[in-house]
Here is the input.
Amino acid sequence: MQTNDQLLAIFENYLAQVELPEEPELLYAPIGYSLAGGGKRLRPLLLLLSCEAFSGNYKTALNAAAAVEVFHNFTLLHDDIMDHSPMRRGKPSVAARWGENVAILSGDAMLITAYRLLCSTPTPMLGRVMEVFNTMAVGVCEGQQYDMDFETRQKVSVVEYMRMIELKTSVLLAGSAMIGALIGGASEADARKLYKYAIELGLAFQLQDDLLDSYGDERLGKPIGGDILEGKKTYLMITAMSHASEEEREILRSTHLDPSLTREEKIARVRALYDKLEIPHLTEQQISLRFERALAQLTTLDLPAERTAGLREFAESLMGRKK
Here is the structure.
């Protein structure tokens, strides 16, 4: 079996060789630009790991791995349009470089390219794989819509937020894991267990991202406090609102809008309330719970432990943990 690093290198080489037409240039050049822009390649790596765990042969899943990565990048093109984001992975976004109309059309072509790649996957399970892919794709769209809806809603519950991030973040990971397992010959029961593994892992990852946005280290390359400054309804904010007094809720609701406060003062004021309400601790508890649930799913698979080592390593690496 290949190591995780070896699989990642193999996939990068494979993706670089995916051929795109040269004309019309304004349709296909942005696709190549987007796919060459880096990224962690989490979803294709998880798909390949899942396939290899059951079959020992990742090669039959390379087309499907490329499909989920192209689909993921398609969603980023459209996200950047909706968010008016000028940058993506340290470079101008496609919308900023070529304009929104080009980004919309190139994104549409990326979606079609993803289906073409998936349809050429050599597996007798193609019908089931397509079903999982379609459910995953619709789920991502639903999650994005819920996220947009939450921007204008005054109250969002923790349950609603967890469902939103499950759709927006976890479903793409989970769909990738399940597709890889099915291509690798896993039973439906084991494929569903791997789906649950990735759902829980995705939730832990997103909650950790929420926590790092307010309590991380700017040396990691990401400014701290962006969610606070936007008044974004993250797990931290929603949990704080559920534990706060009415006076404290008003502070949480209004601080980001207060023109008399500097950026640093806004972040400090909200973080002080988070600390008082023990929100970091509550968030860390939830992260650990989800992470342990993910690892627990691996022990229920009808596989020897050495076959799931790559999946365990993937989870620990994603969460920045060593166990």
